[in-house]
Structure formats: structure tokens, C-alpha cells
Design a protein that fits this description.
This protein has 254 residues and is mainly alpha-helical. It contains ten helices and no strands. α3 runs antiparallel to α4. The longest helix has 33 residues. It is globular.
């Protein structure tokens, strides 16, 4: 059920954002999300998903579809960074692996990067700039943004707690916040590494083995749970999406 709702909330997110172009049904949103996921399985960081979704809309809307997909994935990445950073700080507080000095240096570096990006937002490269990006984001009605954020938070809580309950099922007894801190840290660090969807279990599994190893969790339990999460949340949806891919007969709309 966790896997179903994880993908269902992603479908709701896309249905919500796609209405900027045209209103689509849950069925259409499901087809577009699952077929795009299948198309992206062998592309770095799922980049093939962006091109796949454009096939369901008119050619003139291609840039807008890609932009909306960026918004759809972007909010999920922002949440992964926010929760992951909080998780890392709590984990490091309980099990110090990085010195306070290095943490402060890291935050100082991040603040510097953010400051530079804000200062350079009007610089244009090939007709694009951060100022233009913010302008385009603001063109999307606020209720759509608000719903996108709420759905993204729900989705994050679902798949992170799926991980949590699987550990409980394997009799891993650790304090809730410490276990969740490890889970959010794993998702944050694993998502920052370049990878392919079909290798996702190996990347997340490797990071998870390190973090949960510090908590004394058997590495084979960690590997099994990471592989099971990958199977339930990637492999099964891809198999369902392959049905839509093989039955996609219409050409790109003119």
C-alpha cells in the first residue's frame, strides 16, 4: 500500500501541474507518469522522463511540459535536501562523525553559493537566467504551487516511512527519530550522486549500509530492505509503465 500511495501522490502532483497546459484525468496522468518512468529507467538521473512526457502534448508545449516536470521533481528534491539536512544534523548530534567546525564550514560554503547565485540571477546565458526562471515559476497560480508542495510532503513521508516500517518488520529496534534521521540522510546523500534508476538500489544500499552500520544494524538486512524498496517503488511501476509504452501508438501531436 505504501508503494501504491507513493506513486499515486506523484500522479496527483503531475495532474495538478499539467492543468497549466490542459486538464487531464487521473487515468491520463497515470499513463504519462508511469510511461515516463519506464522511458527514464536507463537514462542518468531519470532525465529521459522529461522527453517522454512531451510526447503526450502538442509540440509547441514541449518547453512548458519540461519546465512543469522540473517543478514537479524540483520540489521533491528540495524536500529531500531539507529533511536530509535536518536528519544529518540530528544523526551527527547522536553519533558525531563530522566535527562542529566542519559543519559550520559547510553551511558557510552553502550560504556563499546561495549568495553568489542570488547576485548573479540577472546574468543571462543563451537567453536563460535565474531571474527568468523565478518569473516563470511565479506565472504558475499560487494554489497549484501550494497543492504541489502538500502532495510532495505527503509523498516524502510515505516512502520514508515505508523504509521505517520495513526496518521494524525485521526487528530493528531503534529510537524513531534516530532511525528516521538515518533514512532521510540516506535519501539525501544517495540522491546527490549521479546514477541510473536501474542501479538505484545499489547506490542507496551502499549509503544505507554505512549509516545503519554505525547504528549496529546487520548489513544484509539493510541490503535486503534497500533492494525490496527498489523493487516495490521502481521495478513494479516500470513494469506497469511498460504496458503504456508498448501501447503508445499515436505520434507526437502537431
Amino acid at each position: 500500500s505504501f508503494s501504491f500511495f507513493n506513486r499515486y501522490f506523484e500522479i496527483l502532483k503531475w495532474q495538478n501541474l499539467a492543468q497549466v497546459i490542459e486538464k487531464i484525468s487521473i487515468g491520463k496522468a497515470t499513463e504519462q507518469v508511469l510511461s515516463a518512468l519506464t522511458a527514464s529507467i536507463f537514462t542518468p538521473n531519470g532525465i529521459g522522463e522529461y522527453g517522454a512526457k512531451t510526447l503526450y502534448f502538442k509540440k509547441k508545449e514541449a518547453k512548458k511540459v519540461i519546465f512543469l516536470n522540473l517543478i514537479c521533481n524540483g520540489i521533491q528534491m528540495v524536500l529531500t535536501i531539507v529533511f536530509g539536512t535536518l536528519g544529518l544534523l540530528y544523526f551527527n548530534y547522536k553519533l558525531p562523525i563530522v566535527s562542529t567546525k566542519n559543519i559550520l564550514l559547510l553551511f558557510g560554503l552553502l550560504a556563499l553559493i546561495c549568495g553568489l547565485l542570488f547576485g548573479l540571477k540577472k546574468i543571462t546565458i543563451k537567453g536563460y537566467s535565474l531571474a527568468l526562471l523565478f518569473e516563470k515559476i511565479n506565472e504558475i497560480p499560487r494554489p497549484i504551487h501550494q497543492k504541489n508542495i502538500v502532495l510532495a510532503i505527503c509523498r516524502y513521508l510515505i516512502f520514508s516511512h515505508q523504509y521505517y516500517f520495513l526496518f521494524l518488520a525485521f526487528d530493528v529496534e531503534l529510537p524513531y527519530f534516530l532511525l528516521m534521521a538515518a533514512i532521510t540522510s540516506v535519501y539525501f546523500l544517495a540522491s546527490s550522486l549521479p546514477t541510473f534508476q536501474f542501479l538505484d538500489f545499489a547506490v542507496k544500499g551502499s549509503v544505507a549500509v554505512y549509516f545503519f552500520g554505525l547504528l549496529g544494524v546487520n548489513e544484509w538486512i539493510v541490503i535486503f530492505i534497500s533492494t525490496l524498496m527498489w523493487f516495490l517503488n521502481v521495478v513494479l511501476p516500470v513494469l506497469l509503465g511498460s504496458y503504456y509504452v508498448f501501447n503508445f501508438k499515436s505520434k507526437w501531436k502537431s
